[in-house]
Design brief:
The complex is a heterodimer. By secondary structure, chain A is an all-alpha fold. Chain A is built from eight helices and no strands. Classes of the chains: A mainly alpha, B mainly alpha.
Chain lengths: ~160, ~50
């Protein structure tokens, strides 16, 4: 419902801008429509591909399977495994909290749980195609690399503090 | 065809992964595809206006 309301508001704003162009500059309006339709097709394919991979991953990597896999690791190995697994996971991070809770309750280290959750938020392997398209290769690689390093640092600090 | 492959290489890889997974577990892939379609339909208005 919230998406629908946001969508309608944004669509109304866009339509308003098109109407302004229609009155002032028809050549620009034609150009905007051409560019917009091209963007719509490209974005639709990319976004749909990402939704497909998220949907498939959510079904293949169940919460229990991920938790049982992660619980086997600890120390530096655990931090790396948590980071890589968190980077693969997609969707709202709130769905990862039960996994983090399960890890902590069943003897997983704080570093493991925090690296898993932090990398879930900060690193997105699945959304890399969109990031590449919008920000370019250099930005994407640098951002993900620094995010990876900072996730490890956060996990180490969390382990020391808690 | 070559240009399409160059432009949408990662999407093609995702498509191939999905096809391979269909062989192993069609039910789970079908659920994943349903999720993808639902998400796309939910966000369609936003995608159109942003484009």
């Amino acid at each position: 419902m919230q998406n629908l309301v946001t969508g309608i508001i944004m669509l109304t704003l866009t339509a308003g801008l098109y109407v302004i162009y229609l009155r002032n500059n028809r050549a620009k309006l034609k150009k905007a429509i051409q560019k917009g339709s091209k963007n719509l097709i490209q974005n639709s394919i990319r976004i749909f591909a990402i939704f497909v991979i998220i949907g498939i991953l959510q079904n293949f990597l169940s919460k229990e399977a991920v938790s049982n896999f992660l619980i086997k690791f600890s120390g530096i190995k655990g931090i790396f495994t948590g980071t890589v697994t968190g980077a693969i996971m997609m969707g709202p991070v709130a769905t990862g909290y039960p996994i983090g809770k399960y890890l902590l309750e069943n003897g997983g280290t704080v570093a493991l749980a925090s690296s898993f959750l932090a990398s879930w938020v900060m690193i997105g392997i699945i959304s890399i195609p969109l990031e590449l398209k919008n920000f370019g290769k250099r930005f994407t690689i640098t951002r993900n690399l620094f995010a990876f390093i900072s996730v490890i640092i956060i996990a180490l600090i969390m382990e020391v503090l808690l | 065809m070559k240009k399409l492959l160059e432009d949408y290489m990662i999407e093609c890889v995702i498509c191939i992964i999905a096809i391979i997974l269909i062989i192993f577990n069609p039910h789970k892939v079908a659920m994943g595809l349903t999720y993808a379609v639902n998400m796309y339909v939910n966000l369609f208005l936003i995608i159109v206006s942003v484009s």
